[in-house]
User: Which sequence fits this backbone?
């Protein structure tokens, strides 16, 4: 059947036939890089439009409907606007850090793309510590926010950055712990192994209630990690005007904006991979007939469907809840999420040892 | 308390006070130097208990200024108006912001708009006018601003 | 005031919130001294939208000055106009026809609901929830349509004139108000679902910005701000005007004194306003909508004071007349000015995020403060 | 007990969040509730109430006659000096001289739509129109002369 992995394989074979192996590797890397960048651009456009439409419908509005058919090109127009805007650097700013920060945000987001399996056998880099890699790299994100906040020479930015630092460092813990529950169940850090282990059912169904709790905690924690409402204290526009990116404009702002959406996509992709089986179609135990039917739906559609479902949930949060206060945010992590996820991990470990899961 | 009772009570507190008739509420005229002497018992006396200063303003009568305090009691629901004549060139009166906290802002407003100097005010600075405002006080009758005032 | 940037000698951070800031809902400038995230001092600087309405009114006649007052507290424009018209009527010793009285009260209460709707949406937005803002505007829009039909304008109506109201109510008025009440009763529980019951919201509001009853009175707070602290101060109840002593309504009191109490007072006040409207809407007496007045109004020499309860608190209009056609001196005791003065007192020691919640529950309208 | 209180707190908290999400989810799926008005597109169907105060106009009948006597009541009533009545004396058919308006100048840029002039007018010569799209590129265009050129006062209006 036609699929992403077939295209990749055929391309690989064709390149190997035409060029020598070194050149093939170089060309493949360039193609992968271009693919990632264009995926970024497309994701940015799609997610911004999706966010605007979701918010509009929840707010009994129509949302963008002027640019292009049904407003589909709205985010393209926005991008164009941001491109032609002047990228100001404030006078008292630390020029180097100020200009570097948005790129670090983007680079982190790009690095996170590597271990994600977009479809069956379609993955940039299936390294053996995939999940660990993701949680390690994603914490570099905070550096770019701290840099942006510090270098702007603006008190609002600084406060936003400091809030964000405290927030991301704390929420890493419970995000990590809930990832660990799946690692414990699977026994592997490799992304492809995790997906393969869900061939007879996704972990959220197989893992009983503890997996469900881990899933909820994971969603809450990654919402906080990506600085999305109700945890958008780093931006908090009613308190800090725009938080760490107050002084950014034009394309540098656009990079932050894009990085936020790409990060949301990535964490949702990780969530989908860990709890909802990634590209694995919906299988139930040994019902071969049913599983066959499900296999007819291409794996990429399964992956993107699950990811976008999670993204929708995170957007749903944003347009429903008020923002937390900084001390309540930390209370939530240290008094609620962390103890619950620790106990939960204990339960899951016991469950995995006793083989109680399906 | 009825106006008559208030009248006798205030005469007891401050024999120098004079009264004005007309209007819904009892109007008391006091000298600026006596104001603080009257204000303390007005607030603290259990039978008067004027705890709510709901209006504090000033009127420019060209020859003199007149401070007007509207006081009310949230317990007895009686109301009283205190007036005090101030000298137009060197207006000054005791601040009452330590008795009624709301007076702090209102006195700052009167200070910049009419130029009344409130003695012992904790923070007598410009509130509404821009910093470094020089010139006369905008709400006085003789104030002229040829640039920003439009006469029709 | 702009030199006050940077840090103090104790190493505290001084930040300027406003004059252009999303949470100040206008051009209010607060200089905040922060220790980390904790507020040490809040110092308001006013005057960015000061038009000196009091001075302007000194050159306008008693009919003309009323329209200016719509521009003070633009969210309760009707009630401002009402206070001014009442003060002039007091001076003229004018009895206004019963129909006009009832129509005035109906308009006041509709305005109060509209104002509280906007406050609710704006406050939820301050706390970071955007959706309620749009939902609040849906109901407010219905009121604005009713206003537009009868008064000819949506925000600055200038409908109250000395002697009554400017025009008779629109024939559809009663039907539309009843429709609105039906809509409002259907939708009010959604407010609880989306905001009031929300655990994040409750934690943001409870035990934040505590104001004791004694302080509330001392700071001259009025309206829902003071009633949230348990101060009985509803002018409609204790100094009734128009037909308020003939209608049954409850003075909403909450004893919490925190932001949540002030929030609940406003939410419940909307229900009481609906209750007042329901009592009056079918009982609008027939008759004139305006008393006969002279073309040129002249107030006798003297001083006149009228008090009304606006959506934000007690509005006082103090007219000093020299017997001419224009007021000699006019003073508006605006509720926002006194309510703002309490901000420093309640904000000390709380977090920066709380300041936004507190400003939300004080329901500041900047043109009302600056006048 | 502490643990039950803790669990109850978590349960009630999550429940309250879900209730809110249910409400926004309802509006997300029910597009009939959308209240957006797409203004410039719906211009034809816009229905302004007849009392809407858009601008002051002077209605003329088909014989190009208005009802304004030039009494200047509107000018006096206006708080902003929006209206200026410029009068002239015209010779009537029977030889008498009579005051009539030459121009009624209306400054829309100063007008606050307070309706006081319309109320003050003894002969109902001016009314409020329901127009509201007043923006122009040149400010002088906002100064309007309300009476049509060559218009006369209606018979019988004193």
Assistant:
């Amino acid at each position: 059947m036609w699929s992403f992995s077939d295209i990749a394989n055929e391309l690989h074979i064709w390149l190997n036939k035409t060029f020598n192996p070194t050149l093939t590797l170089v060309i493949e890397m360039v193609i992968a890089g271009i693919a990632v960048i264009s995926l970024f651009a497309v994701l940015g456009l799609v997610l911004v439009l999706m966010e605007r439409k979701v918010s509009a419908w929840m707010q009994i509005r129509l949302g963008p409907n002027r640019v292009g058919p049904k407003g589909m090109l709205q985010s393209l127009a926005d991008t164009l606007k941001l491109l032609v805007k002047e990228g100001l650097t404030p006078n008292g700013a630390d020029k180097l850090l100020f200009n570097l920060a948005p790129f670090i945000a983007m680079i982190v987001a790009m690095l996170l793309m590597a271990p994600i399996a977009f479809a069956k056998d379609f993955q940039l880099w299936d390294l053996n510590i995939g999940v660990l890699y993701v949680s390690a790299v994603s914490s570099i994100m905070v550096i770019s926010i701290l840099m942006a906040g510090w270098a702007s020479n603006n008190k609002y930015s600084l406060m936003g950055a400091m809030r964000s630092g405290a927030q991301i460092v704390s929420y890493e813990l419970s995000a990590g712990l809930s990832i660990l529950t799946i690692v414990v169940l699977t026994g592997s850090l490799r992304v492809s192994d995790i997906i393969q282990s869900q061939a007879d059912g996704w972990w959220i169904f197989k893992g009983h209630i503890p997996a469900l709790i881990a899933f909820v905690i994971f969603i809450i924690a990654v919402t906080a990690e990506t600085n999305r409402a109700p945890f958008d204290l780093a931006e908090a526009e009613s308190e800090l005007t725009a938080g760490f990116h107050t002084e950014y404009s034009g394309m540098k702002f656009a990079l932050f904006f894009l990085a936020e959406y790409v990060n949301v996509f990535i964490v949702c992709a990780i969530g989908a991979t860990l709890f909802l089986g990634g590209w694995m179609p919906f299988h139930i135990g040994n019902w071969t007939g049913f599983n066959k039917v499900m296999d007819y739906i291409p794996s990429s559609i399964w992956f993107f469907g699950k990811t976008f479902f999670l993204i929708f949930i995170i957007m749903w949060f944003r347009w429903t809840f008020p923002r937390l206060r900084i001390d309540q945010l930390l209370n939530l992590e240290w008094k609620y999420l962390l103890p619950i996820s620790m106990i939960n991990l204990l339960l899951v470990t016991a469950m995995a040892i006793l083989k109680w899961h399906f | 308390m009825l106006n008559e009772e208030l009248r006798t009570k205030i005469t007891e507190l401050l024999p120098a006070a004079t009264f004005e008739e007309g209007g819904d509420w009892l109007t008391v005229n006091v000298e600026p130097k006596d104001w603080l002497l009257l204000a303390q018992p007005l607030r603290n006396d259990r039978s008067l208990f004027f705890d709510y200063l709901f209006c504090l303003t000033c009127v420019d009568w060209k020859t003199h200024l007149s401070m007007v305090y509207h006081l009310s009691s949230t317990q007895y629901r009686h109301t009283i108006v205190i007036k005090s004549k101030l000298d137009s060139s060197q207006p000054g009166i005791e601040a009452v912001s330590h008795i009624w906290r709301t007076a702090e802002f209102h006195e700052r407003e009167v200070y910049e708009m009419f130029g009344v100097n409130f003695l012992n005010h904790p923070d007598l600075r410009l509130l509404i006018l821009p910093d470094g405002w020089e010139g006369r006080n905008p709400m006085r009758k003789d104030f002229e601003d040829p640039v920003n005032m439009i006469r029709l | 005031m702009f030199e006050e940037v940077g840090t103090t000698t104790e190493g505290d951070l001084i930040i300027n919130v406003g004059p252009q800031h999303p949470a100040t809902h206008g051009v209010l400038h607060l200089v905040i001294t922060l220790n980390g995230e904790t507020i040490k001092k809040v110092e308001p600087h006013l005057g960015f939208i000061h038009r000196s309405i009091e001075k302007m009114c000194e050159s306008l006649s008693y009919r003309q000055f009323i329209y200016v007052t719509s521009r003070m507290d633009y969210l309760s424009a009707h009630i401002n106009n009402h206070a001014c018209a009442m003060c002039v009527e007091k001076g003229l010793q004018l009895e206004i026809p019963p129909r006009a009285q009832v129509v005035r009260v109906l308009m006041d209460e509709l305005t109060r609901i509209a104002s509280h709707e906007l406050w609710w949406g704006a406050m939820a937005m301050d706390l970071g929830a955007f959706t309620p803002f749009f939902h609040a505007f849906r109901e407010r829009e219905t009121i604005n349509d009713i206003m537009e039909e009868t008064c000819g304008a949506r925000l600055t109506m200038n409908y109250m004139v000395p002697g009554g109201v400017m025009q008779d109510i629109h024939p559809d008025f009663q039907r539309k108000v009843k429709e609105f009440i039906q809509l409002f009763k259907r939708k009010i529980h959604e407010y609880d679902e989306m905001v009031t019951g929300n655990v994040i919201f409750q934690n943001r509001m409870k035990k934040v910005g505590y104001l004791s009853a004694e302080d509330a009175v001392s700071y001259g707070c009025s309206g829902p701000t003071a009633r949230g602290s348990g101060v009985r101060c509803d002018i409609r109840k204790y100094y009734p005007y128009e037909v308020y002593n003939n209608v049954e309504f409850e003075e909403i009191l909450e004893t919490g004194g925190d932001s949540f109490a002030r929030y609940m007072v406003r939410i419940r006040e909307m229900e009481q306003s609906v209750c007042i409207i329901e009592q009056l809407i079918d009982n609008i007496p027939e008759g004139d909508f305006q008393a006969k007045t002279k073309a040129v109004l002249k107030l006798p020499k003297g001083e006149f004071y009228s008090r009304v309860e606006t959506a934000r608190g007690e509005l006082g209009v103090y007219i000093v007349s020299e017997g001419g056609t224009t007021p000699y001196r006019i003073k508006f005791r605006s509720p926002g000015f006194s309510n703002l003065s309490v901000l420093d007192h309640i904000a000390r020691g709380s977090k920066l995020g709380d300041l936004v919640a507190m400003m939300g529950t004080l329901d500041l309208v900047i043109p009302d403060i600056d006048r | 007990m502490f643990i039950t209180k803790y669990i109850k707190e978590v349960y009630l908290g999550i429940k309250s969040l879900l209730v809110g999400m249910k409400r926004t989810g309802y509006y997300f799926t029910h597009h009939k509730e959308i209240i957006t008005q797409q203004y410039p597109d719906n211009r034809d169907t816009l229905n302004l109430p007849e009392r809407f105060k858009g601008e002051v106009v002077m209605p003329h009948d088909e014989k190009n006659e208005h009802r304004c006597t030039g009494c200047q009541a509107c000018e006096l009533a206006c708080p902003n000096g929006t209206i200026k009545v410029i009068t002239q004396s015209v010779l009537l058919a029977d030889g008498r001289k009579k005051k009539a308006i030459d121009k009624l100048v209306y400054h829309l840029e100063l007008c606050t739509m307070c309706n006081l002039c319309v109320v003050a007018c003894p002969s109902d010569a001016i009314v409020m129109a329901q127009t509201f799209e007043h923006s122009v590129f040149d400010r002088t265009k906002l100064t309007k002369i309300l009476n049509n050129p060559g218009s006369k006062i209606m018979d019988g209006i004193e």
Observations:
- The longest strand of chain A covers residues 117-119.
- Chain A has a mean pLDDT of 83.
- Chains A and B do not touch (no CB pair under 8 Å).
- Chain A is about 70% helix and 0% strand.
